[in-house]
Amino acid sequence: MSKIAGNEIRPGTLIEHDGGLWIAVKTQAVKPGKGGAYNQVELKNVINGTKLNERFRADEAVDEVYLEKKDYQFLFASGDMLTFMDIETYDQIELPRDFVGERSQFLQDGMKVLVQTYEDRPIGIQLPVQVTLTVVEADPVLRGGTAAPSYKGAVLENGLKIQVPPFIEAGSKIVVSTEDGSYVRRAEM
Questions:
Q1: What is the reported pLDDT for 102?
Q2: What is the pTM of this model?
Q3: What 3-state DSSP class applies to 72?
Q4: 44 is in which domain, residue-wise?
Q5: Which residues contact 94 (CB under 8 A, 6 or more apart)?
Q6: Cα Rg for the chain, rounded, in angstroms?
Q7: pLDDT tens digit string along 34-63?
Q8: Are both 143 and 115 inside the same structural domain?
Q9: Closest of 188, 131, 189 to residue 162, by C-alpha
Q10: What gap in Å lies between CA 77 and CA 37, rounded to an integer?
């Protein structure tokens, strides 16, 4: 185990907290008007599945638990189960969709992911930081008297609805963050 700062906790980070093994499901950096910034973290107990919301300040030291990490390839989804293959041994494992959480919508056939195991039991998964997706629907640009940069709604191939810049049209390929589902940039062709 090693110590990390509270603001370094990201989704998929495994920590020891209050005598239990917890995995970060969602994180949000909060900078209030008064007081110091903190990381609002939704934690899920690895053993019993209970959830907890905690605030961690940057100066707070947290014990990060190191796990065995192996590369797996996403093969397919079948109902509520996701099938992954160990890249080295070709062994397959099935994980429930809620194990991956909301980020499961970013899984693509053949995508390489990092599966974390603790005592030979999968307890965490890390997706690539960004994925490239195709825009299937884009709202028309609203012409108005605003000088501020405006965004418009778009629907991606995986059904996710996000905000994109006005120059993005249906059929465009864009890069999206898997951490929060936000637009990053237009993908190179």
A1: 82
A2: 0.61
A3: strand
A4: 2-64
A5: 81, 82, 83, 84
A6: 19
A7: 888 888 999 988 777 789 899 988 888 888
A8: no
A9: 131
A10: 39
